What does this fold into?
Amino acid sequence: MFRASASGSWMFSALNSIKEDTINGKTVHTSSPHYNVTKGVRTMVSKKMHVALNKQIGYEFSSAYLYLSMSAHFHAVNLPGFAHWMNEQYKEEMGHGMKFFSYIYERGGKVELEAIDKPPSSFKNPLDIFKQVLDHEKKVSGTINALYELALKESDYPSQVMLHWFIAEQVEEEKAASDIIEQLKMIGDAPAGLMMLDRQLAARS
Ligand SMILES: [Fe+2]
Ligand SMILES: [Fe+2]
It folds into this structure.
């Protein structure tokens, strides 16, 4: 954590709390990334898990790219609330990708970013788009569940704990898309209803 010193310059406050430990005869700072309070050295993620987690970063960034493309579409058809909702979704997916990015680093792995495919750029009506969102989220839920299965198989307890958050998140994401699909079905071809939903989606933060 950074804090301002009395003189106004920035100081790294953790410097005051660095301690040392001895592991296999070697001195290791407790602030070192290779130090783990329970095992002495940081537990490394397995090769298989590392590859799978690394791929998941790509899936999350691909999701972000898809939703950003949908946002661009909604801007083009004068539905700014829908465009805003998709932009928020884009930001969330970037956050998911970065969670995996940080986790790999924390477990002693190196991130290798994958290529991201060009997302579709032409879309049909809002109902069709949100059906596409739901299908996409179901696929992502599948990749998260597969990661969890691997973590169980490998008795990788830290990854299981980390993935609990994503499992709950996927339930929310699928529900959010399903709820909007239901509203769009009720609206049908009524422009007034679509305008109301657009205003509602504009309020997402
Ligand atoms: Fe995600
Ligand atoms: Fe998602």
